[in-house]
Design brief:
310 residues; alpha+beta; Ribosomal Protein S5, domain 2; Alpha-Beta Plaits; 2 domains; 10 helices
C-alpha cells in the first residue's frame, strides 16, 4: 500500500490577521505549488528519500528532516513501531513566507493518517499538525497548517471545541504571489516585532480584522480591500525585505488593489479582480522583484480543496 498527499502553499496572516488568518493558494495555470509526501511499507525502521526542486536546501541527515520527525511523532502518538519508507517531494523553498514547513508537516501527517486508516479525526489531526509546527517555530499558530490542510481561508478560533472555521472568499480575486529568491527565518522576523503595542494599535488591529471578516461575509470587496492593512507586523518587517516597499508602490501604480507580506516574508502578495492587471503585476515582479535563478511568481486564487491525495 502507498499513500501520496499533496499539501498546498499558504499565506499566513493575509496581512490583516496576524496569526489568526490564513489562506491556501492554487496557481490558476494548474501547477502544484506545494509539497508531496508518499508513505509506503518497509521491512523495518524509517527511511526518507527527498526529491524535488528544493531538495538540496534540506539537511542531508534524514533525522534532521521534519518529515522524518513527523513520522516519529505520529508513530509515538499512535503507539506503533513499524517499518515505513517516506518520500518528500520538496516543491516550496524554506523560509519563503509560503508555509513551506507547514506544507511538509501537513502532507506527512495526513499521509500517515491515511496510511493507517484514519486513526485521528480531522480536528485531532489538525491539533497534531499545529503542535508539531509549533515545536519548529517556537509557538503554536495554525494560520499556515489550517488552510494548508483544510483549504480556503481559515479564521483561527482556538476554542476547546474547534480550532478554526472557514470564512467566505472573493472568488473574483486574483492573488499574485512573488518569492524573490531569498530565505528569511520566521523566528528572526518574529523577533523584529515589539513585545508591546500601543492601545491605538491594538484597537486598529481588532477593527481592521473584524471589518475584513465582516466584509467577507457581506461579499463587499471594496470594504475588504480598504481594511486589509497590517498594523502589527509589516511596519517592523518591511525594511528587512529588499525592494518590498518599491514593489508595493509600483504595484499600486499598475492598478493592484492592495499588497502585503505573505507570512513573515519575503514573498509578497498583491490582489486584483482583473486578470490582465494580474498578468501585468506578475510581469513587473518577474522583471524587478525576483532573482530569476531562484525566485518565482504565480497568479493564484484561493485553493478551496486543501491537502488531498495526489
Amino acid at each position: 500500500m502507498s499513500v501520496t498527499i499533496y499539501a498546498p502553499a499558504s499565506m499566513g496572516n493575509v496581512g490583516v490577521g496576524f496569526d489568526l488568518l490564513g489562506g491556501a493558494l492554487a496557481p490558476i495555470d494548474g501547477s502544484l505549488l506545494g509539497d508531496r509526501v508518499t508513505v509506503e511499507a518497509a521491512e523495518h525502521g524509517l527511511t526518507l528519500d527527498v526529491i524535488g526542486h528544493w531538495a538540496n536546501k534540506l539537511p542531508a541527515n534524514s533525522a534532521e528532516n521534519i518529515v522524518y520527525q513527523c513520522a516519529v511523532f505520529f508513530l509515538e502518538h499512535l503507539g506503533k513501531n513499524v517499518g515505513l519508507r517516506l518520500t518528500l517531494e520538496k516543491n516550496l523553498p524554506v523560509g519563503s513566507g509560503l508555509g513551506s514547513s507547514a506544507s511538509s508537516v501537513v502532507a506527512a501527517l495526513m499521509a500517515l493518517n491515511e496510511y493507517f486508516d484514519q486513526p485521528f479525526s480531522e480536528q485531532a489531526l489538525l491539533k497534531l499538525m499545529g503542535d508539531f509546527e509549533g515545536s519548529i517555530s517556537g509557538s503554536v499558530h495554525y494560520d499556515n497548517v489550517a488552510p494548508c490542510f483544510l483549504g480556503g481561508m481559515q479564521l483561527m478560533l482556538d476554542t476547546p471545541q474547534v480550532i478554526c472555521e472557514p470564512i467566505p472568499t472573493f472568488k473574483q480575486w486574483y492573488w499574485v504571489v512573488s518569492y524573490p529568491g531569498i530565505s528569511l527565518s520566521t523566528a528572526r522576523m518574529r523577533q523584529l516585532m515589539p513585545e508591546q503595542y500601543s492601545k491605538q494599535t491594538a484597537i486598529d488591529f481588532g477593527r481592521y480584522l473584524s471589518a475584513f471578516v465582516h466584509a467577507c461575509y457581506k461579499q463587499d470587496a471594496v470594504l475588504a480591500v480598504s481594511v486589509l492593512k497590517d498594523v502589527l507586523a509589516e511596519p517592523y518587517r518591511a525594511a528587512e525585505i529588499p525592494q518590498y516597499q518599491a514593489a508595493k508602490s509600483a504595484l499600486a501604480d499598475i492598478g493592484m488593489l492592495t499588497s502585503g507580506i505573505s507570512g513573515s516574508g519575503p514573498t509578497l502578495f498583491t490582489i486584483t479582480d482583473d486578470i490582465n492587471t494580474a498578468k501585468a503585476a506578475k510581469q513587473w515582479l518577474d522583471d524587478h522583484y525576483i532573482d530569476k535563478a531562484l525566485g518565482f511568481s504565480h497568479i493564484c486564487q484561493i485553493d478551496e480543496l486543501g491537502a488531498r491525495r495526489a
